[in-house]
Amino acid sequence: MNAKNVPAPRVHKKYVAAVSGIVLTAIVSGVVGGAVWGVLRPTQEVQLIGPGELAVVEGSAQAGFIGVLWFVVVAALIGVLLGLLVLRGRNFDSPLYGFIGVLVAGFIGLVGAVVAFVTGQVVAGMRQVDVSALAPGESVRAIPEFSAYSALLVAPLVAMVALWVRILFQPEDERDGGDSILAAGESAEQS
Known about the structure:
Blueprint: H1 13-40, E1 44-50, E2 53-56, H2 63-86, H3 95-127, E3 139-142, H4 154-168, H5 172-176, H6 181-190
Antiparallel strand pairs: 1-2, 1-3
C-alpha cells in the first residue's frame, strides 16, 4: 500500500463547531468571572515599617481569606455553568461517552478557572496601590496576595459533578436517540 491510496482524514464541521463553542464558553465565562472576582477582592490595611517591609494592620488580615472565598464562589458558578450548559445538547448513551464527557467537563472547567484567575489577577493589579511611594509609618489599603492555588480545582470538580448529575437524571428516551459528539464523528466516518 503506498501513500496515494491512503484517504486523508476528514474534519467534521459539526464536531469542530461543538468543541469551539465549548472552549469559547469556558474562556468567556472565565473572563467575566475573573473580572467580577478582581473587583470583589477585599483590601487590607498595610503599614510601611521600613525600607521594603510592610506589616498588616491588625483587624484587616482576613481580607486574603475572603478573597479566596470569593474566588471559590466564582469558580463554582463557572463550573456549574460549564458542566450543565455547555454539554447540554449532547446525549451520553454509553458509559464510555459519559466518562469522556465528565473528563471534558473537568478540562473545560480548569480552562475557565485558569482564565478567571489570570483575569482576576490583572483586574486586582489595576486596583493595587503603589506602596513604593510610602514613607515609613504610613499605611494604605492594598489587595493581599493570592496563594491558594488549590482553589483552581473548584471549577473542574463542580463541572464534573454537575455533568455527572445531568447524565444521572437524563431520561431514558433521551439516551437512545439524539446526537452525541462522539457518535456524530463515528456515524460520519461510516458514511
